[in-house]
Amino acid sequence: MKFSELAQFFEKLEKTTSRLEMSQLLYELFSKADKEEIDKVVYLTMGELVPSFRGLEFGMSEKLAMEALSKASGTKLSVIQKLYKELGDVGKVALEVIKREGKGLSVSKVYEELFSIARARGTLDKVMLLINLLKALSGVEAKFVVRIIVGNLRLGVGEATIIEALALLLGNRDYKQVVERAYNLCSDLGLVAETLAQKGLEGLEEFKIQPGYPIRMALAERVADAEELIRRLGRCAIEVKYDGFRLQVHKKNNEVYIYSRNLEPMTEMFPEIKQAVAKIDAEELIVEGEALAVNEETGEFYPFQITMQRKRKYQIYEYSKEYPLKLFCFDLLYLDGEDYTIKPFIDRRKRLEGLITLKNTLELSELRIVQSAKEVEEFFEDAILRGLEGIMGKRLDAPYTAGSRNFNWVKLKRGYKGQLMDTIDVVIVGYFYGKGARAKLGIGTLLTAVYDPSSDTFKTISKVGSGFSEEEWIRLKEILDEIKLDHRHARVDSLITPDVWVEPKYVITVSADEITRSPLHTAGKTGDEPGYALRFPRAVGFVRSDKRPEDANTVEEILRMYQLQRKIKVE
Length: 571
Ligand code: ATP
What we know:
Blueprint: H1 3-15, H2 19-32, H3 38-45, H4 62-73, H5 77-87, H6 90-97, H7 107-119, H8 123-135, H9 139-149, H10 159-170, H11 176-186, H12 189-205, E1 219-222, H13 226-233, E2 236-240, E3 245-252, E4 255-259, H14 271-278, E5 285-293, H15 304-308, H16 316-322, E6 325-335, E7 338-339, H17 345-355, E8 362-364, E9 367-370, H18 373-385, E10 390-395, E11 405-413, E12 424-432, E13 445-452, E14 457-464, H19 470-481, E15 484-485, E16 492-493, E17 500-502, E18 507-511, E19 514-518, E20 531-535, E21 538-540, H20 555-570
Parallel strand pairs: 1-11, 6-8, 14-16
Antiparallel strand pairs: 2-9, 2-10, 3-4, 3-5, 5-6, 6-7, 10-11, 12-13, 12-17, 12-18, 13-14, 15-17, 18-21, 19-20
Helix pairs in contact: 1-2, 2-10, 3-12, 4-8, 5-6, 6-9, 7-8, 10-11, 10-12, 11-12, 13-18
C-alpha cells in the first residue's frame, strides 16, 4: 500500500464525527493493506511504531520537527514558527509549506524510515533523517508523518474501534470476542492484525500467551460492605489491598521484563525486583503483584508518594537502596509453557506459594480463606487500622479474566462521611474559557467524561472547575491546546458544547460529594431517563500520567457507585 493512500484514510478519519463511520473506514483500510504490512498500518493508525510496552520513543520535540520542516521545504524557520503559532499544529504547518507531489513511497518504506529516526541516537542524526524523509513526501503525507513524530497524531482511534474493524475483517462484529481475547493475551494489536491476516480465524482462536508480551490486567468491581462481598463470592479468598504500583513481571530465557498497570515498560525502574524474579526457579514465568516501599525496621509500608518518587528519580539504583521495594505477589499467569490464566484462582495461588518461598524482596500477598461476613469484617477492620485502604476479595474458582473488570475480584474500600467512598477518574474532553479571575487565564472549567466500553465512547459526567492552582490551570491550558479540535471528537458523546473541544487524552482524578441524576450529562443516560453527574467535584492532583483515557472509570462503575451510595445512605 502506498503511504499516500494511508494518509487519505487518516484525512477521512480525522474529519469523521461518528464512531461507526470510524470503524467502517478502518475496516476498509485494513482490507486494503497487504498481509505483510497490516501490523504497520495498525501501529501507524495509533500513532506508534510498536506497541507502547516496547517503550520506543521518537525523542523529537516540535522545535526539532520545525527545523527539519524548514530545511526540507526551503522555508525560513521564522516563517514556520509564525505559522505554528497561528495553527497550533506542526502537521498543519507541514501541509501549508510542502507543496510538491510526493515520491509515492510505500507504507513499509515510510515505516522503515520512521523506525530509523526513532532508533537514531543523536538529535542531529534524527533531524537529518527526517529532512530526507520529508523531501520525499507530499504535504498531506508530511502532515501525518510529523504528527506521528511529535507524538500527536490526533486521530484518537481507540483500541476498541480497531478491534471492531478487525472483527469486521473476519466477517462481522460478532467476532469481536475472538479478536479481543487475542489482544488481552498480548496487548499488541499489530500482532493480532498480522495473525488474523496470515492465519485467519483459526490462528486467532489458537492465540497463546507469550512471555515478553504483557497480558492486559484483570480489574476489580466494588462492593459496599462485607455482606455484599460474601453474597457475591461465597466462600472466598480475601487479601490486603496494598497501595503501591501494580506490576506484571515476565521472565523468559534469563531476561526479566516488568510492566506497569497501563502496560508501560518499567524494568529499569525496579532493579531489586528484576534480580529477585531472575532467581525464581522457573524458565518462563508471569507473575503479578503490588510493589511498595517498606520500612525495614518497623515493617510498616511507606506512603504511596514515597513509592511513586522512584518514577521521577534518576539515581534509581541509589534510591532502591534507600527505599527498597517489596513485591507482594498475588497471581500467577503463566509458568513454563503452561497458561495459568484459565485455571481457578485457588490453584494459581497454590502454585505461586510453591514459587515464592523466600521472604525477601518477593513476598506473597496476605491472604485468608473466609466464608462469613464477620470474618471479612474483622480482616477489613484490621487492614484499616494498619493504615491500608481496604481489602480485595477473590472467587476461588474463577479464572484470571484478562482485560476485564468483573466480580471475580472485588474491592472493599474505606468510605468517608459526606464524600463518595472513592475518587473518580475522568477524561478531559473540552474546556470553557472561564469567568471572573479565571477569564485572564483563558481557561476556567473542564468538561469531563467517563468511558463507555460497549460503544467505545466518552460520555460526559461533570464540569470540573476547582482543585487546581493557578499554575496548574496555565499548564493545563498549554497541554490541552496542543490537542484541541475544530469539532467534537467522534468518540465523545455530549449534550454540552464547551468553548474548546479537545481529543480525549488526559485523565484526572476527582473527588465529589455524591453522584446525582442530571439531564445535562450523557453518562448513563437512556432514552428520556437522565444521566449521572458529580456533585461538587474537585480535582485531586494533576493529570494522571499512568492512565490512558480508556482507564478512566466506566459508565457502569458510576452506576454501581450510585447504587452503593444509595445503599449506604439508607443504612
Ligand atoms: P484503585 O484506584 O482502587 O486501585 P484501580 O482502578 O487502579 O483502582 P482496581 O481494579 O479498581 O484498580 O483495584 C485493583 C487494584 O488494587 C489493582 O490494580 C492493584 O493495583 C491493587 N491491589 C492491591 N493489592 C492487591 C491484591 N492483593 N490483589 C489484587 N490487586 C491488588
